[in-house]
Write a structure and sequence with these properties.
Number of strands: 4
CATH topology of the largest domain: hpI Integrase, Chain A
CATH class of the largest domain: Mainly Alpha
CATH superfamily of the largest domain: Intergrase catalytic core
Order of helices and strands: HHHHHHHEEEHEHHHHH
Radius of gyration: 22 Å
Strand order of the largest sheet: 1-2-3
Helix content: 40-55%
Oligomer: single chain
Strand content: 5-15%
Number of helices: 13
Shape: globular
């Protein structure tokens, strides 16, 4: 890759890091822009035109989700490049918008959930419960600290460290709170075992990739830990019919995103028809 591209990308990533952008997002953005640079074959990002982007992207067999991600990353990259005086225009803004595909949530089934709980060791079971019973992302599970657990008037709650440094507070069951309170290694906090719930080499805790891999290994092929978050969203909505509450629990900025996580069952459709009749 030409040095002009490489230097610009690395400077952009440093700028994103300074703003507290999560490592997972940094890897995604870096991968998108580096791939675009290789496809375009230009010596510098400043000589890229919209027409060149259109031709390059049109010849790729990408999923709609990947196309949207590439477009978003390039728009953000060029917005930054304009501010730094590296270029005068943003060629990515004129790329055609990619319509969102119809939501197809795929929550982990009861059989898969039971399989995880039976086969998992104590550490992995707790990881799975934080995803399937509280709706945490793998990166949020990795960063759970014993100090994040606290008691309110109506029960226990957990401070969740979400995307982009955003925090939210979610209620947890008494049983799950007891497991979290044991701290790393399964000992109680009172015995001096406070700290990261899942210690590791990523700033003191396990990396999100490691957490995701540990849980995915307990699931059938083709299933990932993220489907436990889909399971939480679906179960929570079916139990409450309160989409806004589910949105808050998941930490979504938009209800539309929450809807993409929530599977509609045949019983839901039947109930809607019967209500109309």
């Amino acid at each position: 890759m030409p040095s002009d591209w490489e230097h610009a990308i690395e400077e952009w990533l440093d700028w994103l890091r300074a703003g507290g952008v999560p490592k997972t997002t940094l890897r995604l953005r870096r991968g998108h822009v580096r791939r675009a640079a290789r496809i375009l074959g230009t010596t510098s990002p400043s000589i890229v035109s919209t027409d060149l982007l259109v031709v390059a992207f049109a010849r790729r067999d990408w999923s709609p989700e990947h196309r949207r991600g590439m477009r978003t990353s390039l728009i953000k990259f060029y917005d930054w490049a304009i501010e730094r005086g590296m270029t005068d225009t943003n060629p990515a803004t004129a790329l055609p918008k990619v319509p969102e595909s119809r939501p197809r949530p795929r929550p982990a089934t009861d059989r898969i959930w039971q399989q995880i709980l039976i086969q998992a060791g104590p550490r992995e079971r707790l990881m799975a419960q934080l995803a399937g019973e509280v709706g945490l992302r793998r990166a949020e599970v990795a960063r759970v600290h014993t100090n994040d657990l606290f008691e309110e008037l109506d029960g226990w709650s957990l401070v969740v460290h979400g995307k982009g440094g955003k925090q939210r507070t979610v209620p947890v069951s008494d049983a799950l709170a007891r497991e979290i309170a044991k701290g790393p290694g399964g000992h109680t906090i009172g015995r001096g075992r406070s700290g990261w719930l899942f210690p590791g080499q990523d700033d003191g805790h396990l990396s999100p990739d490691t957490v995701g891999k540990l849980i995915s290994e307990l699931m059938p092929d083709g299933w990932s830990m993220h489907k436990l978050r889909h399971r939480f969203a679906t179960r929570a909505f079916q139990g409450t019919r309160n989409l806004l509450a589910v949105q808050e629990a998941l930490g979504h900025a938009s209800v539309a995103t929450t809807q993409r996580y929530t599977a509609i069952t045949r019983d839901d459709v039947r109930a809607a028809v019967q209500a109309a009749a």
